[in-house]
Amino acid sequence: MFAHLSPLVGLGVFGPLIIWMIKKDESPFVDDQGKEALNFHLSVLIAALVTAVTCIGPLIISVAALIYHIMAAVEANKGVYYRYPYTIRMIK
Prior knowledge:
The protein is mostly helical and 92 residues long. 64% of the residues lie in helices and 0% in strands. It has 4 helices and no strands. Helix 2 packs antiparallel against helix 3 (28-50) and helix 3 (28-50) packs antiparallel against helix 4 (57-78). The longest helix is centred in the middle third of the chain and has 23 residues, at 28-50.
């Protein structure tokens, strides 16, 4: 859950990365969800950089990412393996 919420407190891509690196060996669930949060945040970062030439693009991406982060945190708190939509899974 914290890997999904860490970008919301200003840690950016480093929040999910740090949590995943520290906790990945403790639980397969934490390993899976840490990678999923990291992959999603990297995808959001790429999309924001691509749409940076427009004024509205990064704003729309940020709002959508906020909604998906909250949905993922709620599902992870329930113990559900959550999959973000529109994610490039770079880390397997």
